[in-house]
Amino acid sequence: MASEGQSLVVFECGPACRCGAECSNRVTQRGIAARVKVVRHRQKGWCLHAAEDIRRGAFVCQYAGELLTNAEANRRHLIYDCPEYHSSGRPPPALLVVREHLPSKTASLRLNIDATHFGNVARFVNHSCDGGNATRVLVRQTGWPLPHVALFANREILAGEEITMSYGEVKADESTLQTAPPCYCGSSNCIGLMPRDVA
Ligand SMILES: C[S@@+](CC[C@H](N)C(=O)[O-])C[C@H]1O[C@@H](n2cnc3c(N)ncnc32)[C@H](O)[C@@H]1O
């Protein structure tokens, strides 16, 4: 899983603030905010569904996982990309790579969060080629050096609907056609292939 381009950044109170957990500017810090359930799909594996209506703009959950160095993320990408990995019965890879363009615009921070082995329900959010109904947002907390990744509903999500997001753009180049895994998102613009990981 990868994402190219700039993610939206929001700012919240954090360890350097005097306010407590009840502060209204700590929206993403109180755990999973919507009732959700994990449902099995024949082709996509486990999926995250809304168990109640989720209003547009609402925080759903953080994307929790192991925070990796770039070198370790690249090493794991190689492992996760191997066909043997997928046929081994091990959990599907959930290594998310997001970039934050720093204010200077000349540098960017690459954040590698691997939820394959340790994570929360966000690891069950599947890809949709139409962008999905959840958007990834970087959350910076005052006094905390690194951003967190949070999922927000980008439209109203009805109870029973699958919660999806975009893993990145699908490039229909030759290497993608040969190596990209099949996509079953069912969107009208889906070409039947998932985005390939970009390190
Ligand atoms: C982060 S996991 C998502 C949860 C996963 N479905 C599971 O069973 O654990 C990413 C993996 O889910 C599957 N997946 C996600 N979106 C998919 C889609 N649109 N079509 C097919 N498989 C998908 C792929 O196996 C992918 O490597």
UniProtKB/TrEMBL annotation:
Residues 179-195 form the Post-SET domain. One of its GO terms (cellular component) is chromosome. Residues 34-168 form the SET domain. The keyword S-adenosyl-L-methionine applies. One of its GO terms (biological process) is methylation. InterPro entries: H3K9_Histone-Lys_N-MTase, Post-SET_dom, SET_dom, SET_dom_sf. It holds the Pfam family SET. Its main location: nucleus. PROSITE patterns: POST_SET (PS50868), SET (PS50280). It comes from the Eukaryota. Keywords: Chromosome, Metal-binding, Methyltransferase, S-adenosyl-L-methionine, Transferase, Zinc. GO terms for molecular function: metal ion binding; methyltransferase activity. It is found in: Chromosome. This is Putative histone H3 (Lys9) methyltransferase. It comes from Klebsormidium nitens (Green alga).
